[in-house]
Design goal:
7 helices; homodimer; alpha/beta; Rossmann fold; 5-stranded parallel beta sheet
Chain lengths: 229, 229
């Protein structure tokens, strides 16, 4: 059971590069964070293990792992055994790694925790520059969700609105990494890869590895990721 | 695995009076329904059993029970062992039976099924006349959610928008019951009570029993509910 305080916030925290940077930013701004990791039966389940390792460094963070079995719904290369994770996609449009309504589901669960614990602030590490083109990572979606949740919760109706923070939304991947380095993020522990080995080595080929690699290169920071041989 | 067709729809279906009426309405309008029942660790878990009995009558409905453990979040008399289900509440404001962000979570999961199965229509039996004052049963919330989900899904971005139907929203409880009777709903199988006995007898005292009893009385229809002695 996490104990919230007046200055608490909730961070959606997958164990990846973006959400770990977001956690570090939120940790600077708030005390007594709740880091909410969704175990959604993702194939890259190793990110749950990554999240557990990363969180040890943050003293005032309560880590919650919440199960929601999106593999039962399927329809994404990240959750559906019948769909292969592609190598970095060059086709336009929304890629097959998009998970149906994922961020709406995750933000809804975060909002439930916010409501229960009397918390105003939710952080999510969405980014609409170096990203895979997922509709639920765009600013207009987040702003709309914020309006909706303030109509659909007690907090909202009582005027104590929920605020969704997206500190990475307009940053390039290289800028995210530079920001994280300033905040002492250990990127060697984070997992971005959609298809890692059982021991967490990144494939180096999927979309997410592609953006991560480019980010370290552009930031002129040595990439600590261990890639499969 | 449910098989969807061009005329499919998804119905959020709890096994209660409102959602069963909504199911009957959707069944009239669509073929190959997916009835989505959320097992959210509700104390009145008997409603899941009710949903299984009710669904047997509907031939073209695929029943999906999806787990999302809202008791882990708590904060409601319906999910939290430390909060007692009250007798019918006369105090104003949002009652303690309100479950934080429940309909946002449920609609998000329904939207994920819609996205995966290429379905446009989602039905939800919310009602803002004879209801407990939950913020996420109001029309303005539903309309806002519809906008949000169309910004946050592939369907929406591609112009194949998701439509959320609320056929009961402006009906009195008695009107809902009259409509259901016309559609041959067997209300003896439905469970509305927040605190039923283990065998499904209604308490007769909670808010939900209160509105249900009044509904049958006002509709001048014999109440088939079995109440605890």
């Amino acid at each position: 059971m996490c104990v919230a305080s007046k200055n608490s916030a909730i961070v959606l925290f997958s164990g990846g590069l973006d959400s770990t940077t977001t956690l570090a930013i939120a940790d600077k701004n708030s005390s007594d964070l709740i880091a909410l990791t969704l175990n959604y039966s993702q194939k890259h389940h190793f990110e749950i293990e990554a999240s557990k390792k990363i969180i040890k460094k943050y003293k005032n963070v309560c880590h919650v792992i919440f199960d929601v079995d999106l593999a039962k719904i399927g329809g994404s290369a990240l959750t559906d055994d019948s769909i292969k994770v592609p190598e970095s996609e060059t086709t336009k449009g929304i890629p097959i790694t998009y998970v149906p309504a994922r961020n709406t589901i995750f933000l809804s669960i975060a909002a439930a925790y916010a409501e229960k614990n009397n918390i105003k602030d939710i952080y999510i590490g969405v980014n609409s520059i170096d990203y895979s083109g997922y509709p639920d990572c765009r600013e207009e979606f987040i702003k709309s969700f914020e309006e909706t949740i303030n109509l659909g919760t007690k907090r909202g109706v009582e005027g104590k609105s929920i605020k969704i923070h997206t500190p990475l939304i307009h940053l390039k991947k290289s800028e995210i990494i530079s920001e994280g380095i300033k905040l002492d993020v250990d990127y060697s522990l984070t997992l971005s890869c959609y298809e890692p080995s059982l021991s967490g080595e990144a494939c180096g080929k999927c979309d997410s590895c592609h953006y991560r690699k480019e980010g370290f290169r552009d930031a002129k920071i040595s990439d600590p990721t261990i890639y499969k041989k």
